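Question:
Write out your own:
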Amino acid sequence: MDIYMQAALEEARQGLAEGGIPIGAVIVHRGRIIGRGHNRRVQQGSAILHGEMDAFENAGRQPAVVYRESVLYTTLSPCAMCSGATLLYGIPRVVIGENQTFQGEEELLRARGVEVEVLQEPACIELMREFIAQEPQLWDEDIGRT
């Protein structure tokens, strides 16, 4: 596992330790992490703080060119909201830890010219499978099924 996906996975584990949903993300610009985050919907009572959105928030205000030169690493396939933010800011490449437990808007990203790579990292898969088995109602809420 490369260092950036490892950082995203560390974020996911931090979210779980805080009582939240274990999804993490980092935004990398020219080899440096400029934003990191994890799903904090439960912890913050937020409607929008998915891992990717938290990473964008923590990256702060950046010139458009920075985002157009960045890569988003996320432990789980991004939902419509997070894919929309990725498109809005022009992120050209998304590296996904896994999409077996949830298939997000990968086709939308590809259709809009984003390079999408899915790693199927066993650690990412196991983390989400265990969480979904233990917290199915919370998971359904997070992805808009309830």
Notes: The chain is about 45% helix and 20% strand. The longest helix spans residues 3-17. The mean pLDDT is 96.
